[in-house]
């Protein structure tokens, strides 16, 4: 269904999640996690596991990988010294690979271009750290579409907290009813609902192995080209 029919009008601002929404970034992330693990003498994890672990920011993903477990970020699960070592190795590997093996999803450039042409403000609200987000967007030629990029470490809170979304809305000086969030995971849906912002869920990304419908977004569309 087209955006106008769905939302009732054009939103003043659209916020997008990054990993699993705009870019299929797991190939780079998994490559970097496996570099880290093998340099630590641990077995590689592979893309299927990393796809489940992504979504709550890099430090959490690194802890899950070091524990080889989704609950690896819980207190006491991963030794602090091991984490510091792993985190540095991951950042080194990801700085070199960020964007190299990852693709922009179908429909993304077309939709961003169409919204830009209509004067809709666009921002990225991701849990990925700000520097890697900027690097990935630049590598994929997407930087020009966004007036703001909020990373997981930009503000005191990250998704599923509503703060980063409310921050963008405030910057645009619009009301939450005129804003729209687009994401692939429950973190995006929970954050949007807590902010009073309507949210579109995309089924092709990473929602910790669960269908996006289980997070109950306002709408699910197969990909962004459906909305043009
Ligand atoms: O780095 C992550 O955990 C993923 O971030 P995103 O899905 O919020 O873009
Ligand atoms: Mg995501």
From TrEMBL:
Pathway annotation: Organic acid metabolism; glycolate biosynthesis; glycolate from 2-phosphoglycolate: step 1/1
InterPro entries for this protein: HAD-like_hydrolase_sf, HAD-like_sf, HAD-SF_hydro_IA, HAD_2, HAD_sf, PGP-like_dom2, PGPase_prok
UniProt: Mg(2+) binding residues: 17, 19, 184
Protein name stated in the entry: Phosphoglycolate phosphatase
Reaction(s) catalysed by this chain's protein: 2-phosphoglycolate + H2O = glycolate + phosphate
The protein's Enzyme Commission number: 3.1.3.18
Lineage of origin: Bacteria, Pseudomonadati, Pseudomonadota, Gammaproteobacteria, Oceanospirillales
Functional summary from the UniProt entry: Specifically catalyzes the dephosphorylation of 2-phosphoglycolate. Is involved in the dissimilation of the intracellular 2-phosphoglycolate formed during the DNA repair of 3'-phosphoglycolate ends, a major class of DNA lesions induced by oxidative stress.
PANTHER family per record: PHOSPHOGLYCOLATE PHOSPHATASE
Gene3D superfamilies for the chain: HAD superfamily/HAD-like (3.40.50.1000), Putative phosphatase, domain 2 (1.10.150.240)
Family, similarity comment: Belongs to the HAD-like hydrolase superfamily. CbbY/CbbZ/Gph/YieH family.
Catalytic residues as annotated in Swiss-Prot or TrEMBL: 17
UniProt keywords, alphabetically: Carbohydrate metabolism, Hydrolase, Magnesium, Metal-binding
Species of the source: Kistimonas scapharcae
Pfam families documented for this protein: HAD_2
Cofactors named for this entry: Mg(2+)
């Amino acid at each position: 269904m087209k955006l106008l029919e769905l939302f009732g009008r054009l939103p003043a601002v659209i916020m997008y999640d990054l990993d699993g929404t705009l870019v299929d970034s797991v190939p780079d992330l998994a490559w970097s996690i496996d570099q880290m693990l093998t340099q630590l003498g641990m077995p590689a994890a592979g893309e299927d596991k990393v796809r489940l672990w992504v979504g709550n920011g890099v430090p959490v993903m690194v802890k899950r990988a070091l524990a080889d477990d989704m609950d690896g970020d819980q207190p006491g699960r991963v030794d602090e010294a091991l984490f510091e070592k792993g985190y540095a190795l991951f950042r080194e590997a990801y700085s070199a690979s960020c964007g190299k093996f990852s693709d922009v999803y179908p429909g993304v450039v077309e939709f961003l271009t169409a919204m830009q042409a209509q004067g809709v403000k666009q921002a990225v609200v991701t849990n990925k750290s700000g520097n890697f987000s900027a690097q990935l967007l630049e590598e994929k030629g997407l930087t020009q579409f966004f007036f703001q990029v909020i990373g997981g470490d930009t503000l005191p809170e990250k998704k599923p907290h509503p703060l980063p979304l409310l921050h963008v809305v405030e910057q645009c000086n619009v009301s939450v009813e005129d804003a729209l969030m687009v994401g692939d995971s429950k973190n995006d849906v929970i954050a949007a609902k807590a902010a009073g912002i309507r949210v579109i869920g995309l089924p092709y990304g990473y929602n910790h192995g669960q269908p996006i419908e289980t997070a109950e977004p306002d709408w699910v569309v197969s990909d962004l080209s459906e909305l043009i």
